[in-house]
Structure formats: structure tokens, C-alpha cells
Amino acid sequence: MELSAKDEVKLIEGITIKGYLHMSLIDYSGKIVSLVFLPRCNFRCPFCFNVDLVNDSDSLKMVEPEEIFEHLKSQKKWLDGICITGGEPTLHKGLPEFIKEIKKLGFLVKLDTNGTNPEMLENLVKNKLVDYIAMDIKGPLEKYRKITRSEVDEKTIQKSVDIIRNSGIDYEFRTTAVPKILSKKEMEEIGKWLKGSKKYCLQQFRSGKTLDKKYENEKPYTPDELKELAEIARPFFDIVEVRGI
């Protein structure tokens, strides 16, 4: 007997969903996708604007996987896939099983990650569960602990970079350009570190609600300044994009 989506959800454990956006035109280049938001993060980047997700606030309503499966099935004509973001999605042990159910429905899957769980990434790539990976690059590798305010292992970040670059699937590395953190010097250091990678994206910093309140009124780079940083990065990557200006 075939399982319905309602029955299949009972088999998925180890994943908590705290947000679902039915449609996005900007989160997976050239694709129309839904967004799934998973809570919790092992970084404490002061400029992060997903404050509720990082802290796993009880104020956020739980979303059942069944609801997502049903919506996807009803929108097969219009949706290309799904983007799984957070927080940090790879903290959820049930992520592979959740993605398997999405793939069964015939959708593409894009994953956003900070690169702290290379074992999970390797598993997802090996089992062909992801079609696109976007890895956040917080700054030069040697400055990760300071920027993320966490005891991150630089070797772990490097391993994730290597897995993604050698995966054979589409990917991008991306950095949020916070003036206090990303200078022209840091931009060049990132370029040298990731030299030869396919795609790199500079994202405009958004002031407002941030994890560290000191960044709530931080002035972002001007569009011209952001473009100058992109020009520094350009010689090191096949494609360089600027977003949010």
C-alpha cells in the first residue's frame, strides 16, 4: 500500500520547522520556490537579522511537514523547488529524511548553510538530495571565531568549502557586507582563500533588528561602495554578483 503525504510525515523525526513562505522569486536564481525556515544556529553573528530563528523563539508558530507536502503537491504547475534556510538547517538530524520526501514529489532543493556540518553536506551530496548549495562566508577564515562569536573549527569550514566545490552541483559562496567587518582588505583575503570557485555573491547588510543591538543602526555600504568590493572579488571567481542594492 502506498503511503500518502499525511502518513509519510509520521516517519520524519529530528526536524523542527518554524516558518514557511509559499513563493519566492529571489531565493533560487531563475527558479520559483517555496521557503522553509528551520530554527537554531551555532553562530552568533552580531549583524544577523533572523533573530527569532537563531534563538528558536517560542513565539514562532510550528509548521508541520504535512502542510508543506500538501502545498507543494497542489502547486506542481508553478513551483520549481524549495529553499531550506534558517537558522542553520544542518543542525536538524531529520533534514535528509525531510528532503527525501520533497524529492519524491519531484522538486529541486536548494540548501542555505554556514558550513559547520560537512558530514551532513557530504551525505546530502552523495545521496543526490540537493541541487544547489549556498554557503555563507562570514569573512576571512582566520577571523571566523571573532566574527561569529563562536568556537568554530576553521578546518570544518574548509572541509565544507572543499565538499561544495567538488560536489558537481551548482553552488555559490556569499558574504553579507557589513562595513565594520568586511573591508577591502578582508574582501581580498576572502578572494584569495576561495580563488577558482564558481560563484560569489556580495549581499547588502540590512540594518534594523539584529542579534547585537549595536548593529541595529549600523550604516550599510552605499551601492557604489558595494560595487567596489565586488570588483576586488571579481578576479578570483568565475561569477561575482551584488545583491540587495
Specify the structural class. alpha/beta
- Name given to the CATH architecture: Alpha-Beta Barrel
Number of helices: 9
Number of domains: 1
Q: Uncertain runs with pLDDT below 50, 5 residues or more?
A: 1-11
Largest sheet, spatial ordering of strands: 1-2-3-4-5-6-7-8
Largest sheet: 8 strands, mixed
H-E string: HEEHHEHEHEHHEHEHE
- Note the overall shape: globular
- Provide the gyration radius in Å: 18 Å
The CATH homologous superfamily is named Aldolase class I
Mean of residue pLDDT? 92
Describe, in plain words, how this protein is organized in 3D:
It is a single chain. Mean pLDDT is 92; it is low at 1-11. The protein has helices at 5-8, 51-54, 65-74, 95-104, 118-126, 144-148, 154-165, 184-193, 223-233, and strands at residues 19-24, 33-38, 81-86, 108-113, 132-136, 170-177, 199-204, 239-243. The protein has one domain: TIM Barrel. Helix 5 packs parallel to helix 7 (154-165). The radius of gyration is 18 Å and the shape is globular. With 245 residues, the protein is α/β, with parallel strands linked by helices.
Write the layout of secondary structure elements.
Layout: H1 5-8, E1 19-24, E2 33-38, H2 51-54, H3 65-74, E3 81-86, H4 95-104, E4 108-113, H5 118-126, E5 132-136, H6 144-148, H7 154-165, E6 170-177, H8 184-193, E7 199-204, H9 223-233, E8 239-243
Parallel strand pairs: 2-3, 3-4, 4-5, 5-6, 6-7, 7-8
Antiparallel strand pairs: 1-2
